Structures are given as structure tokens and as C-alpha cells.
């Protein structure tokens, strides 16, 4: 079994650790976190060090693959970590065994897909995307790099979601919609029109608020 290290020892990192181990896909061996004290133990998992220690940790064979547990509040940092580390450490792809991902889908590296997600034919999930529990992504849709989907997001067919988007819980995006980069969508929002500029959108139908 591969040894997994997680960058970020907060709530999201701990959830990833739980699911990756409980699903018997990885031995979760350690966290890297700038705000945790090195060598302390969090939920029985050691804090190996800070983000700057990831490359040395790999060289010293502390882990086989890494994944990022930095969530929707810091998507720019999530991107920065991924782009700076991808050439020097191998990234894991974690898809919980309860998911249905059609065999025709393409799922990138560093992607984390939590329990109960359904992704239909020809969908593309690009690198470093995080997909929370119970999301549904219909056929031919594309989720671009570093984007975060909250629980139970429903995405119809032929949808393109941009980079570093934060899609709120239980939101719905109808078919043939393009969502720009750096868009935040509030909980329960219903997107029925193209979203061409970055910013925060809420409501049914969705409206730009800032
Ligand atoms: C596992 C996990 O937990 S993952 C995380 C899941 N969490 C989420 O998905 C949370 C999503 N967050 C939201 O929906 C938040 O309400 C946000 C981010 C959209 C807005 O939060 P804030 O920046 O605090 O905005 P604020 O509360 O001041 O609202 C601004 C306006 O938008 C409205 N608004 C805010 N959220 C929503 C919403 N989801 N739907 C409709 N209207 C909304 C407010 O009523 C307010 O309207 P007004 O100006 O007419 O009074």
C-alpha cells in the first residue's frame, strides 16, 4: 500500500486522512503544515514538518505520494503549492471506492473525490480539483484546475467550470454553461446563465453580488 502525506493538517486534511485510510487505499503517514508543530501527532498521524520540508521528506522516503488538504478559503495557495511541487514530488489521486466514475472520464493528478460522487461519461476533472461528498457531474463537463466543489453540487452536461472556483453546497448549474475562473457560488445557487467574470454569485437565478 502506498504511503500518503497530506499538505494541511486542518479539517480538510484530517478528512482526507480519514477517508484515504478507512477506504484502505493508502497508509496515511504524515502531514506537512506551516501552522502545526513538527513531530506532534494529530489523530495518530505525525506532523512531518512545514510545506518547505515536503521535497526533503520525499527524498528521504517518508512517503510515496502527496495530496493537498487546503480548501476553499485558500484556492490561490492550493494552486501555488501544486504548481511548485508537481515537478519534484508525485501527487496522489484519491477516488473513494463508493464513487461511480465512468471509465471514459479523465481524472487528473492531485484530485481528491470524496464518497458518493457520480461522474458520467467523458467528463474531465483536471489536476488538483477537490470534489466533496455526493456531487453529481453529468456527461461531457469539465472542471478546471484547483477548483473546489462543496457537498452535493449538481452539474449538468457540457458545463465548463473555470480554475480556482469555489462552488457552494447544493448549488445547481444547468447544461451548456461556462463559469469563468475565480468564481465563488453561494449555497443553493441555481446558475442558468453564463458566468463570464470572476466574483461571488448567489440566488435563484444566480446574481452577481461583488
Ligand atoms: C463540507 C463543507 O462544509 S464545504 C463548505 C460548504 N459551505 C458552503 O457551501 C457555504 C457557501 N457560502 C455561502 O452561501 C455564503 O452565504 C456566501 C459565501 C455566498 C456569502 O457570504 P458573505 O460574504 O458573508 O455574504 P453575506 O452573508 O453578507 O450576503 C451578501 C448577500 O448575499 C445574500 N446571500 C448570501 N448567501 C446566499 C445564498 N447562498 N443564497 C442566496 N443569497 C445569499 C445575502 O442574503 C445578502 O443579501 P443582501 O445584500 O440582499 O442582504
TrEMBL record:
Residues 3-82 form the PglD N-terminal domain. The keyword Repeat applies. Pfam families: PglD_N (PF17836). The keyword Cell wall biogenesis/degradation does not apply. InterPro entries: AcTrfase_PglD-like (IPR020019), Hexapep_transf_CS (IPR018357), PglD_N (IPR041561), Trans_hexapeptide_repeat (IPR050179), Trimer_LpxA-like_sf (IPR011004). Transmembrane segments: none annotated. Keywords: Repeat, Transferase. It comes from the Bacteria. Belongs to the transferase hexapeptide repeat family. This is Acetyltransferase. The lineage of its organism: Bacteria, Pseudomonadati, Bacteroidota, Flavobacteriia, Flavobacteriales.
